[in-house]
Amino acid sequence: xxxxxxxxxxxxxxxxxxxxxxxxxxxxxxxxxxxxxxxxxxxxxxxxxxxxxxxxxxxxxxxxxxxxxxxxxxxxxxxxxxxxxxxxxxxxxxxxxxxxxxxxxxxxxxxxxxxxxxxxxxxxxxxxxxxxxx
Length: 134
What we know:
Layout: H1 2-14, H2 25-52, H3 63-73, H4 79-91, H5 98-127
């Protein structure tokens, strides 16, 4: 699944964020932008997995519905964290304040990147190296 490859590749870059200069506004902006891409890839990977598993919810175009359905199918999905990620993604367009951007980066580093990494590991564990699926 090309989406999973992109998810994994983007995550490898995003995971380096904590070693960057977190006072630099361009770095902060870049981390937030990478997060936005990672979240989009994440829920779309979940959508593809639901489709593979024959779940009707995969026909939805709504990230919220996909997250809720994935939570009911996969025990590795932390629904609260994913819904928080969705809210953060939606709030990104309203961040004009440097302190709010720094708070967002802290959430990304402390909660969201670990959740994405956990998802990646669990998908590999469940589906192995089957490239037709992942």
